[in-house]
């Protein structure tokens, strides 16, 4: 059981990306690299926003390359816009549960309340984003993606706008939840400290080349030349 | 992809409505009747009045816009907002107002008469120009005001530190801006006036003051000469297309200009002569724009309490036509809020409503009595004519919604219906309300296609008011005009308000 990228070649504008790798189920993996190195392109291929020119994306041995983003076993937290600002948190979560009909079914309310409790937001169901702090917004987004019940979680620097302490808090929360649910998590970050804290394994993206996951500590303690240049001497 | 299917259906019906009637007219025109002297006269007058109307509107708009740009006074916001009003003001209401001020027994003539000065005649070229300037001076002013407000503050600051005089400032800063803005404003107004019908119908007429559109109407109404109407319609179409394409090169459709409540900070505002000039211009413009409306209201108050049953019936028709064409226009517009959709919608500007009406008349005739369908045809044509404006209003916001939320939509796997119901429409509510209000008011006040069919049992309120005017029942006409004004502004206000209340932020 794994998330696999098999000889992926993808093109975004004039930018080319190639990747072959495998992430075991239940792993927490960081994806690091300079901006413009291809992190977002890689994430778009996995999430289904970009169809690769060749190669395939597999989950548990099944080819999901042709599936729409919403039909993949993947939940994603974007850098911004993870919830609709004009809807209450309850309405947002109801849409995540029933993306086809948009209606609440019996039992949905309990599920929604449980997921809010899970991220420490009891009693926030009737609020809108504008009535919440940045940290609370992040928690609500996490509740949304948990409710979707997808086995793979992609995090595209969703906590980048938070202060350092809040970011650590959120990463710890994700770790806790992911462990409890057995989720496979990929975290895009440009901060090596996030990788150290959060991920046992790390994928380095450099000029469109994606390296397979390696042990985070070993990698960061003895970085190869390209990564060393990105991290800076120190 | 259900949404794609909707887009295709909307595009096909709009394209069909653009092409079908025109084709019907062309086929009908095969018996080319040739261009008679009267037709040349109509073509000449159309070009003449459009040129003069655009020229005069822009000429007066320049000092007025400058005054509004550099002065701050109580009521400035209201006056600027009022400059947007003529867009939704029914032509027939404005005409009655202008007659009350400039007409034979209007205010001006009464004042002149007391000094023994011979009276001023409003009908003919004068009247047409007066009405066109009344409608388009505000538009030109808004466009040019926008240009003035877009001049970076730094330029005026620099001018102040250099100690530039008024002449130098005019040459260095203001003239270059006007060179950019004025051709576009002129072109837009020229195009609008080319297809002037209701104004020409009420204030023009006669061989010396007949536009092509009016000539089309007359050949249908009085001679039932379809071949001649078809030829005139084709000339009108060619004219509108050419002018429209040229206008598009120099400008874009002005609908909702934002940020006009600012004032240009400059350092020459204490110049006494400038202050006097500005006061005079603002005062004259306010009088010119407000007096007719005031007169319509005053004259109408007496008549509105005892309107006949037929007036109320016509009002009912008008409201239904307005609501119907608003619904149809939005149904068309929502799937067409894209770049190519907006191009398609521009057909609504190029095609003359009368040509469309005649084409539909010809298409329907083999199957049904066109006169019975007059109200449906009117609602359809009105929706078509409003489409470019509605798309202009909706498209930027619609594209922003798609840009902001398409990824979240896809990540959640929202169905087309859920996206529309929970995200797209709620977030589009505000411009949607504004667009609906505009369409409803335009349709409510329209005096175009319906005049072609002019069936007493199926009159709309503007047509009814026109008929009352023609029958010299001025009290009833004034009462009807006030009712029309209330209904038009009321519909606009209702829809626009509806879009604002609890709208997504």
UniProtKB/TrEMBL annotation, chain B:
Listed GO cellular component terms?
A: plasma membrane
Name of this protein: Thiamine/thiamine pyrophosphate ABC transporter permease ThiP
Q: How does the protein's chain sit in the membrane according to the entry?
A: Multi-pass membrane protein
State its location(s): Cell membrane
What sequence ranges are listed for the domain ABC transmembrane type-1? 43-247, 315-495
Q: What PROSITE patterns does its record include? A: ABC_TM1 (PS50928)
A Gene Ontology biological process annotation? Answer: transmembrane transport
- PANTHER family hit by this protein: MOLYBDENUM TRANSPORT SYSTEM PERMEASE PROTEIN MODB, THIAMINE TRANSPORT SYSTEM PERMEASE PROTEIN THIP
- Cross-referenced CDD domains: TM_PBP2
Record SUPFAM superfamilies:
MetI-like
* Keywords, in A-Z order: Cell membrane, Membrane, Transmembrane, Transmembrane helix, Transport
Q: Which InterPro entries match?
A: MetI-like, MetI-like_sf
Q: Which domain of life is it from?
A: Bacteria
- Membrane-spanning parts: 40-65, 77-102, 122-145, 181-206, 226-248, 279-302, 314-334, 346-367, 373-394, 431-454, 475-495
